[in-house]
Amino acid sequence: MIFEMSPPTRTRDVSFLILWVVFTLMVGILPLSNFVGHSHWEYIKWVPIPTVEDLRSPKYLLDISSDIVGNTLLFLPLGYVLRRVLTSSSPFRCLLIAAGIGGMLSLSIELYQVYCHSRFPSIFDVITNVTGTVIGVRVPLFSRKNASPAPQHLNRTPHPEDRRHTP
Predict the structure, then answer these.
(1) Which residue in 5, 48, 142, 167 has a CA-CA distance of 20 to 30 Å to 83?
(2) What confidence score (pLDDT) does residue 2 get?
(3) Is residue 160 part of a domain?
């Protein structure tokens, strides 16, 4: 179901979207003193599959669990607000647009981290960020399925009662 938003609601949602993108960028790039101007391609974790030793390490399991939860929760509001802003798009198209925006934002952050000493870019971060965005898009759709549908025509004149006689 496609719905129209009032201008103040749309302005509020677009404003929140911009603020959330800026907040997400700041979380991904701060502190700015880490930027060194030369790349550290050797720091990139290209393969998100952990080794057997990684899975035996409680520290690794805690780190990976916090990464999954943190990255997913950081990008979930992005997807939620994008769904509210993209009201004229079909649900599938909105999902693709949001995944693209979440992916581009995440890739931008990870690329910046290649030039930082204390940050470690990872393909796994991009995967969890896009997953969080997609979950955020789907949240409003799930909640609408259980809600009662809005009346289609509020300004219509009611039909008079049927006055035919039944045999």
Answers:
(1) 48
(2) 43
(3) no
Dump pLDDT digits (tens) for 89-129: 788 999 999 999 999 999 999 999 999 888 888 888 999 99
Domain boundaries, position 132: 7-145
Give the pLDDT score at 148.
45
Residue 45: other Cβ atoms inside 10 A = 14
> Residue 79: which of 88, 64, 67, 91 has the closest Cα?
91
Structurally, the chain folds into a number of domains equal to 1
Q: Give strand pairing partners of 35.
A: 116
* pLDDT of residue 39 exceeding 50: yes
Residue 1 lies in a domain: no
Instruction: Report the C-alpha gap between 144 and 129 in whole angstroms.
Output: 24
Burial of 164 (C-beta count, 10 Å sphere; 0-12/13-18/19+): exposed
Peptide bond into 151 cis (omega under 30): no
Q: Is 157 domain-assigned? A: no
Sign of the four-CA dihedral 87, 9, 140, 68? positive
- Which stretch of DSSP H or E encloses residue 99? helix 91-113
Residues 76 and 135 sit within 8 Å (Cβ to Cβ): yes
Structure-block tokens of residue 64: 């990976």
